[in-house]
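Worked example 2:
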Amino acid sequence: MTHRLPVRVYYEDTDLGQVVYYANYLRFIERGRSEWLRAGGIDQLALMQRDGIAFVARRVNADYLSPARYDDLLDVVSELRGIHGARIALAQRVERGGATLFAAEVDLVCVAVPSMRPVRVPAAVRAALDAPAALREPARDGDN
């Protein structure tokens, strides 16, 4: 599943040279992941409240390729690479006009909230994220 999130660069996102501050790319891809899950029908708040699970970033391998600047319109692209046990592997990038400015490989881990120990990604979540967009339905209560 591939998801695109448009993001405008605001003054608050930049340094003195009106270039996006490097740490803000991590904020952009975090928003992209949240909207990617939402587009897959995954309600993270419901998963936490109902099932006591959450997704946490375990690893981010990032490449800064070219600067984004104040007022640029960017796309945060998130693509599923695989789901293995408790791990969800993603490729994410920030683009401007089709050119990649930032690229990251991200591993998320599904954890039990009270203990923060890894648990398998629920079957309903796995199915929602693996399904083609035309077949995707929101995960329902009781689906694991």
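The CA atoms of residues 128 and 136 lie 6 Å apart. The domain at 2-131 is CATH 3.10.129.10 (Thiol Ester Dehydrase; Chain A).
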